[in-house]
């Protein structure tokens, strides 16, 4: 008997990969316009290396980029980049098509819905609030709160616990095989892989019970499982 | 011979007191709507006490408010407050009337213009960029960069140094007697007090060489001083 669904956030409920990439590129263009004297593609290479080395939640990507290019701190250029990044991010932040309609139907079916996501709590909540979808979720569980993230099984167990759900009565929806689908499957959840974002070509290895292209396919999956 | 002007930022070039107050009130209203179960005026009293105790650059005002009211951390309510605060802030952030016209005229008179301000470098730069006035300033000097703020004379000396100006050839424009006008006068600058913001009724004690109600009066003051 299916009682709830746990969703991954980034690239599962909205287009994270694409919007972050566009926001970064526009930010770098604005920094060049503000005096960062470097070729655009070269700047993107340096920035991407900084993000790879320091992680996406490191707060000083643009500081390090300016330091690498100019050899000094320049608050005007850094702040120009930050402002452009946020302006573009907020402009592009929208749920995938059919997301809200699907969430309405799933709630109407009496399911508990939760989000379980790697990342900083306030940043992940900001996305849910700006996406306009947070009222659908009974709980939002972040790796920052737990102190350990995906793919650690303890994090998924903690999430199930907070939701008051058992693994076997829970559907897990995510985009990544390694960090979402495999651990959820290992815990005994019913796994639904959504083919979105930059990992959509990753080898499946049989961990997904279902594979969907759009969130709205979930409604039929739940109906099918309810009839079992 | 007047060669340059140093400006304070908050409440001198734009209406800081008013816009921060409105943004905070709207943020608290949105937090109450998101589940902060408390009377609005009571919430404002708690928030104002937190701001007074921790300072305006403390990053966790809303966290502390939620903790004080609910006895727990609630990221949904905190993030709702942060988003509303920033949305309102950006919507209200505009220079005082006549500011841009005045800055154009002052640059046309061949003056060096600078900003010297207490606060975090990126936050103060963000205001100048969003206000659209940063290209007028040859330099922006913040207390975070120097490590010591107003009214320390060393900070003002450091600012003059960065601008390549001597005190006696520099006009200082600010709204506060204690933190702006007195130290500038003590260093030998020509002091212009602008009657704006929450300190406009503060006793002068003779530290201001000029008192203005609008920035545009500066143009005549510079003309008068140039003729001396």
Give the SSE layout:
The structure is a homodimer of 228-residue chains.
Chain A: E1 4-7, H1 16-33, H2 40-54, H3 61-70, H4 75-92, H5 99-108, E2 112-117, H6 121-131, E3 139-142, H7 143-146, H8 153-163, E4 170-174, H9 177-186, E5 190-194, E6 210-212, H10 217-226
Parallel strand pairs in A: 1-2, 1-4, 2-3, 4-5, 5-6
Helix pairs in contact in A: 1-4, 2-3
Largest interface comes to: A-B, 16 and 16 residues
**In which range does the helix fraction of chain A lie?**
40-55%
What's the end-to-end separation of chain A, in Å?
A: 8 Å
Query: How many discrete domains of chain A?
Result: 2
Number of DSSP strand runs of chain A: 6
Strand order of the largest sheet of chain A: 3-2-1-4-5-6
The assembly state of the depicted protein chains is homodimer
Helix and strand content put the structural class of chain A at alpha/beta
CATH superfamily of the largest domain in chain A: HAD superfamily/HAD-like
Shape, principal axes of CA atoms of chain A:
elongated
The CATH level-2 architecture of the largest domain in chain A is identified as: 3-Layer(aba) Sandwich
| Poorly predicted segments of chain A | none
What's the CATH class of the largest domain in chain A, please? Alpha Beta
Average pLDDT over all residues of chain A: 95
Helix run count of chain A: 10
């Amino acid at each position: 008997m299916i009682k709830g669904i746990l969703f991954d956030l980034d690239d599962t409920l909205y287009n994270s990969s694409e919007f972050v990439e566009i926001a970064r590129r526009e930010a770098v263009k604005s920094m060049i316009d503000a005096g960062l004297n470097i070729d655009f593609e070269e700047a993107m290479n340096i920035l991407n290396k900084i993000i790879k080395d320091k992680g996406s939640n490191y707060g000083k990507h643009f500081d390090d980029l300016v330091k690498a290019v100019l050899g000094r701190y320049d608050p005007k250029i850094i702040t120009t980049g930050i402002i452009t990044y946020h302006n573009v991010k907020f402009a592009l932040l929208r749920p995938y098509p059919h997301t809200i309609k699907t969430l309405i139907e799933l709630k109407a079916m009496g399911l508990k819905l939760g989000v379980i996501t790697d990342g900083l709590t306030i940043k992940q909540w900001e996305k849910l609030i700006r996406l306009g979808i947070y009222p659908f979720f009974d709980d939002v569980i972040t790796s920052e709160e737990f102190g350990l993230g995906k793919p650690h099984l303890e994090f998924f167990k903690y999430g199930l616990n907070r939701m008051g759900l058992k693994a076997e009565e829970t559907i897990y929806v995510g985009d990544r095989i390694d960090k979402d689908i495999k651990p959820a499957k290992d815990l005994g959840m019913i796994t639904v892989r959504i083919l979105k974002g930059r990992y959509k070509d990753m080898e499946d290895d049989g961990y997904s019970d279902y594979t969907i292209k759009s969130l709205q396919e979930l409604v039929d999956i739940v109906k099918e499982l309810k009839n079992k």
